[in-house]
Design a protein that fits this description.
Elements lengths: L2 H39 L4 H37 L2 H7 L4 H42 L7 E3 L2 E5 L3 E5 L1 E3 L4 E10 L5 E12 L5 E10 L5 E10 L6 H6 L8 H13 L5 H19 L1 H9 L6 H28 L5 H24 L1
Antiparallel strand pairs: 1-2, 2-3, 3-5, 4-5, 5-6, 6-7, 7-8
Helix pairs in contact: 1-2, 1-4, 2-4, 2-7, 2-8, 2-9, 4-7, 6-7, 7-10, 8-9, 8-10, 9-10
Length: about 350
């Protein structure tokens, strides 16, 4: 690595550390202001509050790293332009691609750290933070547990289980209810392909069957039937495991299991692809930031390029989450919903690079 390459990488690294740490602190401060009243209402100790926010750091880093990387690119490149350092490098025979290579290498390093954090640190840390929140912020609420690629919840009179939790429609797929007596012996088993909680508190079950063990294990099938269970769907919604608490392999196995049983896995398949796409944004979004910084004039160029670049970054974020939302709802194929924004950003960055290089 040449002296100039080390210099460019060092300048970008300093800006990246400052920007990402700044966004981390800002995010946690805003979250603390919004959640302090809830945390203190149940007399959570300082150590618990500290562990709660410490556990959130890996997940927040994965979330804010693309924005921090974009801002670091804009700041470092704009300062090089304003100080005529890039002009001197170009005069010395360095090409635009050669100048940008160390910066893109730094972005790739951040992308690798983000991917590693998303797979290794963030899932257990996010689970830990949710456990603290559940015990201290909303104590006493019953929540389902994810085990064996299914959700399980111990109710007042039995055990409820579901294969898929669909929070937007407040429904369950692959629903099972095991009613038990006081000595934990099975009384009946009710299962259905889809279950939905009605406004009056009844459960609407479709394509199911009921087995009563006291009647010699007689099985009765039905197409549509309502039941009155003492449990509500809130426990499943509270206990639903978000993709931030699962690794890529865990989501992949869950999607395969859900598909094998014939249920819809569109939402989780979209999250599966997003697990890879999101860390890569650290590199892809830099391809948009560099041309904006290079186009800035010397007078006031730094702040103008930062403002314009962040506006573009916000627009990219909106496009990404809009596509992911469409993918989760089945409007777009999951691979297309996750990878289309990245392809658009990369194409736009390549086009802008061509314009700058002319």
């Amino acid at each position: 690595m040449t002296v100039l390459s080390r210099y460019l990488l060092r300048e970008f690294g300093r800006a990246a550390v400052a920007c990402i740490v700044g966004f981390l602190v800002l995010f946690l401060l805003i979250d603390f202001v919004a959640s302090a009243e809830k945390l203190l209402r149940y007399k959570a100790g300082l150590s618990e509050i500290g562990w709660y926010y410490l556990s959130r750091l890996p997940g927040v880093f994965v979330m804010v790293s693309p924005v921090g990387t974009l801002l670091a690119v804009l700041v470092s490149v704009s300062l090089l332009v304003r100080n005529n350092e890039l002009t001197a490098m170009f005069s010395g025979g360095m090409s635009l691609a050669r100048v940008c290579l160390p910066i893109l290498a730094g972005c790739a390093l951040i992308s690798a750290v983000s991917l590693l954090c998303s797979e290794v640190l963030a899932p257990p840390a996010n689970r830990r933070s949710r456990e603290i929140e559940r015990l201290r912020v909303r104590p006493g609420k019953l929540a389902a547990q994810f085990s064996g690629n299914r959700y399980w919840m111990r109710g007042k009179e039995g055990i409820l289980s579901a294969q898929v939790v669909d929070a937007p429609s407040r429904s369950l797929q692959g629903f099972q209810y095991f009613e038990l007596d006081r000595e934990f012996r099975p009384v009946r088993r009710v299962e259905s392909r889809k279950a939905r909680l009605l406004p009056d508190g009844d459960w609407e079950l479709r394509e199911g069957k009921e087995r009563r063990f006291a009647d010699g294990s007689v099985v009765e099938a039905f197409d549509l039937r309502t039941y009155r269970f003492p449990e509500t769907i809130e426990g499943f919604l509270e206990g639903e495991t978000p993709p931030e608490e699962m690794t890529y392999s865990q989501i992949s196995r869950y999607v395969a299991e859900v598909r094998r049983k014939g249920y819809e896995a569109t939402r989780h398949e979209t999250d599966l692809h997003a697990k890879i796409v999101y860390p890569l944004l650290n590199v892809i979004i830099a391809m948009l930031g560099i041309p904006f910084a290079l186009r800035s004039p010397r007078s006031g160029g730094v702040w103008r390029s930062i403002g314009l670049g962040l506006l573009v970054g916000f627009a990219c974020w909106v496009v990404l989450y809009a596509c992911l939302s469409l993918g989760r709802k089945g409007v777009m194929p999951p691979p297309l919903a996750a990878w289309l924004p990245a392809a658009l950003y990369a194409g736009a960055g390549a086009f802008l690079f061509r314009g700058v290089g002319r």
